[in-house]
Automatic annotation (TrEMBL):
Gene3D superfamilies: 3.40.630.30. It comes from Roseateles asaccharophilus. This is N-acyltransferase. InterPro entries: Acyl_CoA_acyltransferase, FemAB-like. The lineage of its organism: Bacteria, Pseudomonadati, Pseudomonadota, Betaproteobacteria, Burkholderiales. It comes from the Bacteria.
Length: 387
């Protein structure tokens, strides 16, 4: 009979076995690699001190790891991107505690992908059931698995969870020879706007430098982190990730990062950081910041430069991150995302399940409406919506 073990650090689980499960999963991403999760932990970015008490699960058959997932007991709902603030407020108004809650996700990273890593569906089902049991054992108000794949959804549905739909905006390759060919497929007003925005950036004297992997210098990372901090200051909040986290990324996962630096007069003025999955030819927009305000620079650094790079390097997908209908005007199309939820309190569970059913119907209509107003010419819009 498999044995479940719960650990307070990813280091307790063997890296090779964890990454082996990830590689065999339906939708692997770099953010579920052992190195990434270990860096979050060791850098102090996601620990009990920041409201993320680690509970890494491993399902073992003697010395063989059958299934695993990262979990945290949360004392808040920051850094998740699937919003449950209204649920927490409802608990509070009824004199109940919503926290702690049990969360399975990648901290601060709204990238869809496999969450319940397993050798097969049976092991994944056992892991889902173990999560439900752990939520009860820890007296958590609820269990949440965010941005999981279809196999995760099925296992969690069997374990009594309810699905919740969301939307993000992703670009999918359509065989364009270059960025100009991509622009040619857009509706005239969208194409002209992008060309105008890029022209204004060039007229401001800005040029871009792209550095990949080990070519990103410590000075580049230092400047990036300065910009990263500035972005949070502008939103009156504090950065989730420490400088040490990015130092660990540079040393432990260098091949998964691409950095664009905007230069003017030989000086850095802005930067954007893109995560890469070279094996699956996928790119993920992550962070951006600037030390000087230049109109339209954000769009160029975060969308146009990465898209041009993806097309030139044969990448098949670029995910623009959470939310943002404005991304459609830049050629990114709506994509459904999913999460799974279970609440321990029966009355609140019924209310939330009813809400999720109605929200799901509304989301289906919303996605249909978005696809009807896509940025591509008629034929290309149909192709993009079906991809």
């Amino acid at each position: 009979m498999p044995t479940l073990r719960v650990h307070d650090s990813p280091a307790a689980l063997p890296r090779e076995a964890w990454n082996g499960l990830l590689a065999a999963s339906p939708q692997p991403t770099p953010f579920m690699r052992h190195e990434y999760l270990q860096a979050l932990h060791d850098s102090g970015s996601a620990t009990a001190a920041t409201g993320w008490a680690p509970m890494f699960l491993g399902l073992w058959d003697e010395a063989r790891l059958l299934a695993a997932c990262p979990a945290w007991l949360k004392s808040h709902s920051y850094g998740e991107y699937v919003f449950d603030w209204a649920w927490a407020d409802a608990y509070h108004r009824h004199g109940l505690s919503y926290y702690p809650k049990l969360l399975v996700a990648v901290p601060f990273t709204p990238v869809p992908g496999s969450r319940l890593l397993a050798v097969d569906d049976d092991a994944r089902t056992m892991l889902a059931q173990a999560l439900r049991a752990l939520a009860k054992e820890t007296e958590a108000s609820s269990l949440h698995v965010l941005f999981g794949d279809g196999a995760d959804q099925a296992a969690l549905l069997d374990a009594g969870c309810t699905a919740r739909a969301g939307v993000q905006f992703h670009w999918t390759a359509e065989g364009d020879a270059d960025f100009s060919a991509f622009l040619a497929r857009l509706q005239r007003d969208k194409r002209k706007k992008i060309q105008q925005e890029q022209r204004r950036v060039r007229e401001a004297g800005v040029v871009f430098e792209a550095r990949l992997g080990a070519a990103i210098t410590p000075e580049d990372w230092d400047y990036f982190y300065r910009c990263y901090q500035q972005t949070y200051r502008e939103h009156h909040s504090k950065p989730y990730l420490s400088r040490d986290f990015f130092a660990r990324m540079a040393s432990d996962m260098p091949g998964h990062w691409l950095m664009f630096t905007a230069m003017r007069g030989g000086e850095r003025v802005a930067t954007s950081l893109i995560a890469l999955d070279p094996e699956r030819r996928a790119a993920f927009g992550r962070y951006w910041g600037a030390t000087e305000h230049i109109p339209n620079l954000h769009f160029d650094a975060c969308y146009y430069q990465p898209l041009a790079w993806c097309i030139a390097n044969g990448y098949q997908r670029f995910e623009g991150g959470a939310q943002g209908e404005h991304k459609m005007a830049r050629g990114l199309m709506p994509t459904r995302t999913a999460s799974s939820h279970w609440l321990a309190h029966p009355a609140f569970a019924d209310a939330v399940n009813d809400f999720l059913a109605r929200e799901g119907e509304a989301m289906t209509g919303y996605l249909s409406e978005l696809n009807e107003h896509g940025p591509y010419k008629a034929k290309d819009a149909a192709d993009a919506a079906s991809s």
